Amino acid sequence: MLSLANAFSDEELEDWENRNARLIPEVRAAGYTLEVKIDGAAVNLTYEKGHFVLGATRGNGTIGEVITANLRTVTDLPLTLKGDDVPALMEVRGEVYLPWVGFRRLNERREREGETPFANPRNAAAGALRQLDPTITRARRLRLFAFSIEVLEGSLPITSHSKMLAALERWGFVVEPHHRRVDSLAEARDAVPAYEAMLRKLPFQADGMVLKVDAIPLHEELGVVGGRDPRWAIARKFAPEVAVTQLRAIRINVGRTGALNPWAELEPVEVGGVTVSAATLHNEELIAQKDIRVGDWVEVVRAGEVIPQLVAPLREKRTGKEVPFVMPDRCPACDTPVERPADEAMRFCPNVSCPARVLEGIVHFASREAMDIRGLGYERVRQLLADGLIDDVADLYALSAQQLQAMEGFAATSAAQLVAAIAASRSQPLSLLLFGLGIRHVGKTVAQLLARHLGSMDALAAASQQDLASVPGVGPTIAEAVAHFFAEPRNQDLIGRLREAGVTFEEAQRIVTGGPLAGRTYVLTGTLPTLSRSEASKRIEAAGGRVAGSVSKKTSGVVAGADAGGKLDKARELGIEILDEAALLRLIGDAT
Ligand code: IVH
């Protein structure tokens, strides 16, 4: 897979066309396609007779990794193509990316759970593609834009790049919509400022625009430079937005998991049209590495909407009054000595009653993604804690409108509304309650897997670490964290009080009536050739069947893949039907 040469100015674009025209004068009249350069992970998708058969990363351009199962989780990727002019064998190239919303959500979660946030959506997307477990890839909700075709067998009677994009769309791919054909380089240059402005507003990270010679027959004639960069395309890059300001202080935010997150309080400065007064500093190693000192003049960049980053201190501007930063040994919120696990770059406050952790935990519980208690944000939770009306999330359910009304900032209506919102949260499903409880490593997806597979809070609390680890998509680390949570007397007490408060402890099972697998229960074991565990579970459930974690006399069939172990033996022992993936798909009547 080829790469792209860069041009940082309009003059460099002129030079590029002049060099090409010396080789082939016709390029000047061939027109160009202008596209957005998507900053994600390049992928190569093989389609045989219109079916997606193999997906790979770009790797070093020659050798990439096979990531077919993970790519199948990308919703924009068509598994079967539409149309009767699809070549018999072809490769489609494209870019897998993570939109800003997903990137922000992912990083917020990572910070909440004490993990290091990703520096940019590209790293997050590339990381998701390399996951061993496709359920993790799916949870990241990656997207895909296709941008070119390489026909290997059969033919495609298309002679321009712009028509190739149209064919991709016709067959079912998503093509980045801001592409256009222009007749000349002058027209392309005129379009540059508008592209630069537009790029900053896109819902995903873009790192430039791409100019491509529109006439495909000229591509081969122009050839490739150094085996890497085709002469027929070039990326026009833009300088990132940078500003210089002064670092007022380094502050610490204590997260829900107790992670101490340092951040920079800045003298407000405008970067790319937005006033920035804070920037993340990630962790103490980064501060030490960059030798960032309080009082320093610092460079701040903002690429698109990403959280502003502090690039580097300007050492030449130092006066000697700057103060090196020392990470505190005690939690700034509760003064408990902090801990630093050997394998982590973060320090943690170990005190589960730390007011900062409690505050963050309750706000998370009430958040839209969890119990969805409207009107219960930081300010109100802070107030309720300070007034001694609540100590934890279970106390929320005992609040009365009278109590709230007596508090500052509440009127009769707002008090009644909050009480109603809290009451309504009682019927949120178990998966959201579990997510809201903030158990380490239990994000939304894992909470859903656990709730779906175990069905109730009681079953979860009673499950052994082994039972938990056998839930498809749940690994040993998660199982350990969940078992640990339920073993803690403090948490048992909390769960007991939530039960008394009438909070839903069940997950409504999705009931599919009819369907080829109605009334049947299957157990999955081993690695299936193309489907991930959760994908196979979903297919079985969609066909009316149920998926169980262990084999019993009630099991209708065991779907076994490579390296199947004890469950397969048990199935043989009990004389239960054993199927492979193909047999399962035949039963479901869906081979895609
Ligand atoms: S064309 C000429 N078009 O940028 C063949 N690439 O820096 C190479 N990229 O590896 C690619 N958006 O992953 C092309 N509209 C676009 C692109 C694009 C993003 C990526 C691609 C490539 C990298 C090169």
Brief summary of the model shown:
35% of the residues lie in helices and 21% in strands. It has 23 helices and 22 strands. The two termini are 27 Å apart.
Structural features, described:
- With 592 residues, this protein is an alpha+beta fold.
- It folds into five domains: 6-236, D-amino Acid Aminotransferase, Chain A, domain 1, CATH 3.30.470.30; 243-324, Nucleic acid-binding proteins (OB fold (Dihydrolipoamide Acetyltransferase, E2P), Beta Barrel); 355-427, DNA polymerase, domain 1, CATH 1.10.150.20; 430-500, 5' to 3' exonuclease, C-terminal subdomain (DNA polymerase, domain 1); 521-587, BRCT domain (Rossmann fold, 3-Layer(aba) Sandwich).
- The protein is 35% helix and 21% strand.
- It has 23 helices and 22 strands.
- Strands 1-11-8-2-7 form a five-stranded mixed beta sheet, covered by helices on one side. The protein has a five-stranded antiparallel beta sheet with strand order 14-13-12-16-17.
- The longest helix has 15 residues, at 185-199.
- It is globular.
- The model has no long low-confidence stretch (mean pLDDT 90).
- The structure holds 2-(butylsulfanyl)adenosine.
